Amino acid sequence: MTAAPARDDLIQRRPEGLYCPPGGFFIDPWRPVARAVITHAHADHARWGHQHYLAHRDAEGLMRSRLGEDIAFQGLGYGESLQIGDVRVSLHPAGHVLGSAQVRVEHRGEVWVVSGDYFVSGAGDVNSTCAPFEPVRCEVFITESTFGLPIYRWAPQTEVLAEMRAWWAACAAEGRHALLMGYSLGKAQRLVAGLATPDAPGPVLVHSAVARLNDAYRAAGVALPAVETVSADTSFKSLRGALVIAPPAVQGSRWAKALGQHSDAFASGWMRLRGARRRRGVDRGFVFSDHADWPGLLAAIRDTGARRVIVTHGDEGALIRHLTEQGLQAEAFVTEYGDEAHGVEAAE
After folding, report:
1. DSSP letter, residue 42
2. d(CA 84, CA 105)
3. Domains contained in the chain, number
4. Do 222 and 324 fall into the same domain?
5. 3-state secondary structure of 74
6. pLDDT digits (tens, 9 = 90+) for 4-46
7. Is the pLDDT of residue 115 over 50?
8. Across residues 177-198, what is the average pLDDT?
9. Helix spans in 50-196 (H)
């Protein structure tokens, strides 16, 4: 069910987005506002046109790359707090992409946390590309539910990366290249970090859209492996068994056909669904996500200690029913945030 926010709620849904009245700011607004607190740099959360942006300092390069160098940006470190109007605001790791943050808002002893998108690391997960998720205690937790169904359960990312490596090695043995598609911000950097290793079965190359964001990661201090950027001068005929990491929009394009003989794959949490790979039209599908799975969502919510949970974007109904059965007050906010299923990325 969708709840109408109470007039005295610390965070309220307005036409522009999620609004904090005593602070006079919006969190991830979808329409232009004077003051925006941004959880991360994905396009559905960090939009162009705000007069002032506040986000984690590691997100600055990503946001300027996507929104323009001239945006008015203010950066905070994790755990640092800032007085805005009558509230204290601090940012805490979300584990989603570089600089992703949960927003903690405190007013007169009451604490709300807006999660943005988040990933809860499981056993065997090692992600060197962003700070891991940290639960934040609060009375009210606003959570995503992109993968808010019990069917969504991730294997350790190290296991999935090993599956990708085996597929790539098989392609190389057959004289083909491997085209691995994943979203250029966040997903692609995890793939580069996990697959571009000294014992790799071949060279790793990336699309220019991925390369640009890799540069922003490196500028923020993330030690990504060095990889070549595909250009008009790249000769795939002279390479053997290359892995090419690119955004999904390249599928079936002239850019992809220039690779010559290759196998293609898509890395996404949606590959967990039967038939998703077939609908996507790829040779392989790897279940590899930057979002919390069902156990991760439940663990994150439990660890906040919140008795009231507001669910946004995804399978809200299933999660709300489950939380209600656990004795929590659960409801939904309708937002304009997207998810991996509807992401649009340029194929430059």
Report:
1. S
2. 10
3. 2
4. no
5. strand
6. 456 689 999 999 999 999 999 999 999 999 999 999 999 999 9
7. yes
8. 97
9. 60-67, 157-173, 187-195
The answer on 259 and 223 residing in a single domain is: yes
Q: According to the model, what pLDDT value does residue 13 have?
A: 94
Q: Which helix (H) or strand (E) holds 199?
A: none
Half-sphere exposure of 190 (CA within 13 A, CB side): 28
Q: What integer is the mean pLDDT of 88-96?
A: 98
Residue 67 is part of which domain span?
12-152+290-342
Q: 3-class secondary structure for the chain?
A: CECCCCCCCCCEEECCEEEECCCCEEECCCCCCCCEECCCCCCCCCCCCCCCEEEEHHHHHHHHHHHCCCCCEEEECECCEEEECCEEEEEEECCCCCCCEEEEEEECCEEEEECCCCCCCCCCCCCCCCCCCCCCCCCEEEEEECCCCCCCCCCCHHHHHHHHHHHHHHHHHCCCEEEEECCCCCHHHHHHHHHCCCCCCCCEEECHHHHHHHHHHHHCCCCCCCCEECCCCCCHHHCCCCEEEECHHHCCCHHHHCCCCEEEEEECHHHHCCCHHHHHCCCEEECCCCCCCHHHHHHHHHHHCCCEEEEEEECHHHHHHHHHHCCCEEEECCCCCCCHHHCCCCCC
Say whether both 300 and 276 belong to one domain. Answer: no
Q: Is the pLDDT confidence value at 126 over 70?
A: yes
Which position has the token pair 């509807």? 342
pLDDT at position 300: 98
Which of 241, 260, 286 is the C-terminal boundary of a domain?
Answer: 286
CA distance 1 to 4: 10
Q: Is the pTM of this model over 0.85?
A: yes
User: Could you tell me which of 336, 296, 345, 54 has the C-alpha nearest to residue 152?
Assistant: 296
268 with 144, same domain: the answer is no
